[in-house]
C-alpha cells in the first residue's frame, strides 16, 4: 500500500506538470520526479531497520574486516607495494558496490515502473537515472566508512582528495549509461536480468579489488587497463591511498569510458523507449 501511495503521488505531480507545460519546463518536472523517487527508495530501503542508514557505514566496514582477515596474509606476501591493505580493500569494494547496485537496480527500472508508465506520461529516462543517483547516495554514506578507516590508521588525506568530485562525475556518467543500456536490453530480453549477475561476478574477480595488478603476468596487466572498473578504482586509490595525482592516463581513461558508455546507453535507450510500453 505504501508503494502504491508513493507511485500515485509521483503520478499526480507528473500529471499536473503535463497540464501546464507552458510554465512547467520538462527539466524542472524531471528533477521533481527524481527527487520523489530517490526519497521513496531511501524510505523503502531503511524501513523497519533498527540501525537505518548506519548500515551503509557498517556494511562496508564489516566486509573489509572479513576480507582483510581472509586475504591479508596471502596478498600482503604477494605484493608489499600496498601500503594499507584494509584501506586498499574498502576503497575498491565500495566503488564496485556502487556500480553493482546501480546497474542491478537500473536494469529493472523500466520493468518495475510499468504500472506508473501505463498511467501517466513521464520521461522514461528518469527511472534508470534515479537508480544510479540513489546508489550514489548510498555510496557517499559508505565513504564515511572509508574516512573512519583512514582515521583509524592515521592516514591523513592530502589536497589530492579534491579530485574526488571529478571521479564521481565520471563514475555517475558511466553508471547512468550502463544502466540505460541494461534497462533497454532487459525490457526486450528478460534473460539479461539473470545473466547480469553472472557478468558482475566475473567482473568482480577480473578487477583488482582484493589483489594487486602487480601479481598478474604482463599480458594480463595490459588487458586489465581496458577494464573500466580498474580505471575508476585506480583513480580513487591514487588520490586516497597513495595520495598522489590520479595521472593523465587514468583521468582520460575514466573520462573516455564515462562519455562512451553514456553516449551508447543514451542513444540505445532513446531509439527504443517508444516501444517499451509494448513489452512491459
Q: Summarize the helix and strand pattern as letters.
A: HHHHHHHHHHHHH
Largest beta-sheet details: none
Catalogue the unreliable spans. 12-25
Task: Indicate the radius of gyration in whole angstroms.
Answer: 20 Å
The fraction of residues in strands falls at under 5%
Q: Helix count?
A: 13
> How would you state the average pLDDT, rounded?
85
State the end-to-end CA separation: 22 Å
Helix-and-strand structural type: mainly alpha
Helical content stands at over 70%
Overall body shape: globular
Number of strands: 0
Summarize the structure.
This protein is mostly helical and 280 residues long.
Characterization of the model:
The chain is globular, with a radius of gyration of 20 Å. The longest helix has 27 residues, at 126-152. The relative contact order is 0.13. The chain is built from 13 helices and no strands. Helices cover 75% and strands 0% of the residues. Helix 3 (55-78) packs across helix 4, helix 3 (55-78) packs across helix 7 (126-152) and helix 4 (85-106) packs parallel to helix 8 (164-188). It has 280 residues and is mainly α. Residues 12-25 have low confidence and may be disordered.
